[in-house]
Amino acid sequence: MAEIKSMAAIKEKWTRVTPQRTDDYTAGIRSPKRDWANEANAAKGNWKAGIDAAAAKDLYAKGVTEAGTKKWQEKAITKGPGRFAEGVYLAGPDYEKGFAPYRAAVAAVDLGPKFPRRDPRNLDRVKRVVTALIEAKIGK
After folding, report:
1. Helix ranges (DSSP H) in the chain
2. Which end of the chain is more exposed for a tag (fewer CB within 10 A), N or C?
3. How far apart are CA 64 and CA 113, in angstroms?
């Protein structure tokens, strides 16, 4: 039988030591061994094979069922609020850059005439916005 520390001892060391490794974490991000984008693109066949295999075994639904609702809620409530505001603030420039083409697409839409409330012809106005957003997304 292989000798290994107890799970309690492993957890205790991990939770005690790992938070002190923020410098290592930062250094790894700034100087990765391999370029993330190149490696991710090179692995797209493996990604598809993994997704296909997982779908064939219904692993997504099994994982969701196993995790249940309480786990994600508990983790989100414990960690989320403190990280949410900072994350949104830091993502502001990326959000602006990412949303700008869609805002421009909506701004350029000729909605056509507006009819009385609940008139089904008003759905054409919605369709025009949806079409513009799809065209902005796929680059037409």
Report:
1. 7-17, 22-30, 36-42, 44-56, 59-107, 123-138
2. N
3. 46
Where b means 16+ CB within 10 Å and e means fewer, 45-69 reads: eeeeeeeeeeeeeeeeeeeeeeeee
pLDDT at 72: 86
Distance between CA atoms of residues 140 and 137, nearest Å? 8
Question: Which pLDDT band, with edges at 50, 70 and 90, does 131 fall under?
Answer: very high
Predicted structure pTM score: 0.64
Please give the Cα distance from 62 to 116 (Å, whole number).
Answer: 48
Q: What is the mean pLDDT of residues 21-32?
A: 94
**Rounded Cα distance, 70 and 76, in Å:** 10
Residue 135, classified by CB atoms within 10 Å of its CB into exposed (0-12), middle (13-18) or buried (19+), is: exposed
